């Protein structure tokens, strides 16, 4: 009997979770039993992300050993990230203006949610661009690792990798240690992924049992507009970029199908970070580019999140009958270009950043209480877009550098372990 692939296993877990959640809607025991299972799976993934990022970047950078070349890759990556996220914001604003998802929404029909806890965390999240750059340099790398501060971890790993390359022969044992660490952690990742269908079943089951499928009805137009805009962004915008560099977006989606289903159902792009790095390397992207571009993209290239934030901000303005002029929307775009940087790849963080953004542009933060109930469903879509965007970024930068080998034969027939 043919073994069911990982993508199908995760999809079955997703469908079963939705079914169980819908049957036991409003029953607190579902969350009591399933939440720990989902939490354990997410913790297993988070446990391996930092060691993989550190080891992969150190090995990749030490392999290059050239500060000038690394600076060139970094500069091109950040330029590309800024262009793509700006396009995502513009598309989000255009979709909101064209389809008017917030017009005519009956606020009384929507159940209010307490957002005080979100507001508190939003206040601590809001920071200037200067602070973002200062925070990239860790005063204590061990503390940065403990806190999971990805930008600081990337910076330290790059500096450490350059140091290993600079000392030549003496650095080889250290480099061998990190090569072994990376290989071991990728092995562990593949073993953890065997539990993905169970983790997905638990997480989606809890979500549906809490909010119910009925929660989609009053905000159905917003959900449809968000999903349609995300699909447009992937197939048209990212598809055009892929074509420009001689790649096919459908081929990329096929390669990433396991990771996309997992990221979508867990609403966390962190869950697939190790696997994306591994797959992009096997596709033909050099290790030093993959290990720099993808982790950095998790902070600077969250296309789905920025698109959603732009769309949701205009949705709230429309819901309250606030007319935002073109200059107001340009201000919103500029604010989002700053606040969207440095978002962690964990569920719900976009929601917190959106709160900080609304306060800055003078929109009522209370409006987010109306979409808090369906934020998880929207989060799933934007996470999938983030995964495609960052994977494509690795290919674009590799092609830009003339280093893409295109040897994707290793991916063919590869069993999901």
Helices, by number, come to 18
Number of domains: 1
For the secondary structure, the number of strands is 0
Strand content: under 5%
Radius of gyration: 21 Å
**Gross geometry:** globular
Order of helices and strands: HHHHHHHHHHHHHHHHHH
Counting helices, strands and paired strands, the structural category is mainly alpha
Please estimate the helix content.
Answer: over 70%
Q: Which parts are unreliable, with pLDDT below 50 for 5 consecutive residues or more?
A: 117-126, 408-417
Q: What's the average pLDDT?
A: 82
Q: What CATH architecture would you give?
A: Orthogonal Bundle
How is the biggest beta sheet arranged?
A: none
The N- to C-terminal Cα distance equals 17 Å
Membrane topology: Multi-pass membrane protein
Pfam family, one: SDF
Transmembrane segments: 7-25, 45-65, 77-99, 150-168, 192-212, 224-250, 307-326, 346-372
GO cellular component, one term: plasma membrane
Can you tag this structure with a few keywords?
single chain, 417 residues, Proton glutamate symport protein, 73% helix, 0% strand, globular, cell membrane, Na-dicarboxylate_symporter_CS
Structural commentary:
It is found in: Cell membrane. It comes from Peribacillus saganii. The protein has one domain (6-411): Sodium:dicarboxylate symporter (Proton glutamate symport protein, Orthogonal Bundle), CATH 1.10.3860. 73% of the residues lie in helices and 0% in strands. With 417 residues, it is mainly α.
């Amino acid at each position: 009997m043919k073994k069911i692939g990982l993508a199908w296993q995760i999809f079955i877990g997703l469908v079963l979770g939705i079914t169980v959640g819908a049957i036991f809607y409003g029953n607190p025991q579902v969350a009591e039993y399933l939440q720990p299972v989902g939490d354990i799976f997410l913790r297993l993934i988070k446990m391996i992300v930092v060691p993989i990022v550190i080891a992969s970047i150190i090995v990749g950078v030490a392999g290059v050993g050239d500060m000038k070349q690394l600076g060139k890759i970094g500069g091109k990556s950040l330029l590309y990230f800024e262009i793509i996220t700006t396009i995502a914001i513009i598309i989000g604003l255009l979709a909101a203006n064209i389809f008017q998802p917030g017009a005519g929404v009956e606020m009384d029909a929507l159940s209010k949610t307490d957002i005080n806890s979100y507001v508190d965390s939003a206040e601590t999240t809001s920071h200037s661009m200067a602070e973002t750059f200062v925070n990239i340099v860790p005063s204590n790398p061990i503390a940065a690792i403990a806190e999971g501060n990805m930008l600081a971890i990337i910076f330290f790993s790059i500096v450490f990798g350059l140091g290993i390359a600079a000392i030549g022969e003496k650095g080889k044992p250290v480099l061998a240690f990190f090569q072994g660490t990376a290989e071991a952690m990728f092995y562990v990742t593949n073993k953890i992924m065997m539990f993905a269908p169970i983790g997905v079943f638990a997480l989606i089951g809890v979500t549906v049992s809490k909010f119910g499928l009925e929660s989609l009805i009053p905000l159905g137009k917003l959900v449809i507009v968000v999903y349609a805009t995300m699909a447009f962004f992937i197939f048209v915008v990212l598809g055009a970029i892929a074509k420009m560099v001689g790649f096919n977006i459908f081929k990329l989606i096929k390669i990433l199908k396991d990771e996309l289903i997992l990221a979508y159902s867990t609403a966390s792009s962190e869950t697939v970070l190790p696997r994306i790095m591994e797959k992009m390397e096997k596709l033909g992207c050099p290790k030093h580019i993959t290990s720099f571009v993808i982790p950095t993209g998790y902070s600077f290239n969250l296309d789905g999140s920025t698109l959603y934030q732009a769309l949701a901000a205009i949705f709230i303005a429309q819901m309250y009958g606030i007319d935002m002029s073109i200059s107001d929307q340009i201000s919103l775009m500029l604010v989002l270009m700053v606040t969207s940087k440095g978002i962690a790849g964990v569920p719900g963080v976009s929601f917190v950043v959106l709160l900080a953004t609304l306060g800055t542009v003078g929109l009522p933060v209370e409006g987010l209480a109306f979409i808090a109930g369906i934020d998880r469903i929207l989060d799933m879509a934007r996470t999938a877009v983030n995964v495609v965007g960052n994977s494509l970024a690795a290919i674009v930068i590799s092609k830009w550098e003339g280093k893409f080998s295109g040897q994707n034969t290793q991916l063919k027939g590869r069993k999901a372990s």
